[in-house]
Write a structure and sequence with these properties.
Layout lengths: L1 E6 L3 H13 L3 E7 L3 H10 L4 E3 L2 H5 L6 E4 L4 H12 L3 E4 L7 H14 L3 E3 L7 H11 L6 E9 L14 H4 L3 H4 L1 H12 L4 E9 L22 E8 L4 E7 L8 E8 L2 E6 L2 E8 L2 E5 L10 H13 L9 H20 L3 E2 L2
Parallel strand pairs: 1-2, 1-4, 2-3, 4-5, 5-6, 7-10
Antiparallel strand pairs: 7-11, 8-9, 8-15, 9-10, 11-12, 12-13, 13-14
Helix pairs in contact: 1-10, 4-5, 5-11, 6-9, 9-11
Bound molecules: nicotinamide-adenine-dinucleotide.
Pfam families: GFO_IDH_MocA, GFO_IDH_MocA_C3
Keywords: Oxidoreductase
Protein name: Gfo/Idh/MocA family protein
Length: 345
Amino acid sequence: MLKVGLIGTGGIYRYAHLEGWKAAEGIEVAAVCDANRELAEQAEKDFPGASIYTDYEALLERDDIDIVSITTPNKFHSIIAIAALESGKHVFCEKPDAINPQEAERMADIAARTGKVLMVMRNNRFTAAAQYVKKLQQEGFFGELYAGRCGWVRTRGIPGRGGWFTTKELSGGGPLIDLGVHMIDLAMWLSDNSVPSTVSGTTYRQFADRPDANGQIPAGTFDVEDMAMGFIRFTNGASLQLEFSWASNVEREKKFIEWRGSEAGFSIIDDELTLYVERDGQVVSEKPELSHTSKPQHVENILHFIACVRGEQEPTITPQEGVHMIHILDAIYRSAEQGSEIKLG
Ligand SMILES: NC(=O)c1ccc[n+]([C@@H]2O[C@H](COP(=O)([O-])OP(=O)(O)OC[C@H]3O[C@@H](n4cnc5c(N)ncnc54)[C@H](O)[C@@H]3O)[C@@H](O)[C@H]2O)c1
């Protein structure tokens, strides 16, 4: 029986993680922690008998806890992950890995030194469409995937305006770090393009001081971007365009990935997969009928992590991928500030 401590029992814990830890076999959620005691007490009702903490350091002092899961605001991910790894725990953590590259590197180094599993949520890899495309890519169906686009563009969808999401010190940034991690990771993983060489980007903050639908400007801080555009070159010559926004004057919200390959291409738009293949000199679109037998994507990711802790599976999400990711995001922010391209590596 693996004993688990859950740290941060707010929105995503209740919306997605709870189902994962409930679905997992051979584990016991032995401790729950939230800085807000009421939320920790609510979480204890999900796992009756679990000890309740408001201080994560007290939870980490327990030698009987094998796994820690972190679902706090972004700033605390690396701080708690590093302390948890140092205290001998395996760590599952929400995205983004960290709010700067130095912290992401420290996390990866300490995981390597301690030999503990460190995995950061990449739930979008576990959709039926993503799993199918990955299989095709590994079989060589697309040939070389050389030019891609990805994004998540909302018309109006600023999360927790005035709270930690829109406060750079706590979040590390706006939609680029919030939504970008999901789609940039998926684009890199599906195409096998993982090592960036140069990055260029722009960011905008157009909606921070604008009244919301009720005519009010919410109190609190809003010092992050609400839109980011970018361009990544990879060491193998492939390139990826990207755009992320919490608020834009566009037709509709859209979440998308598109890759062009030498033999075939694909797009996943709002989770719908289309393949583009050549038949008799013409490009034909195919929409595979995918069977959705798998569990929800966040649940699948948590179950994969547990299987890795048990040594039953090899991690398909590695700390080094997180290091590349946070370097890319950081370089986009730096490029936007400087107005020029950033060379990585
Ligand atoms: N993978 C996904 O689909 C997905 C979706 C939403 C959010 N997230 C990520 O999950 C994380 C949490 O987001 P959320 O929407 O649940 O936020 P939230 O504000 O609803 O919940 C965060 C919780 O952490 C608690 N907390 C803050 N600091 C703490 C500390 N030092 N120790 C213990 N508890 C602390 C807060 O009291 C709060 O209850 C974020 O990093 C976010 O990026 C991921």
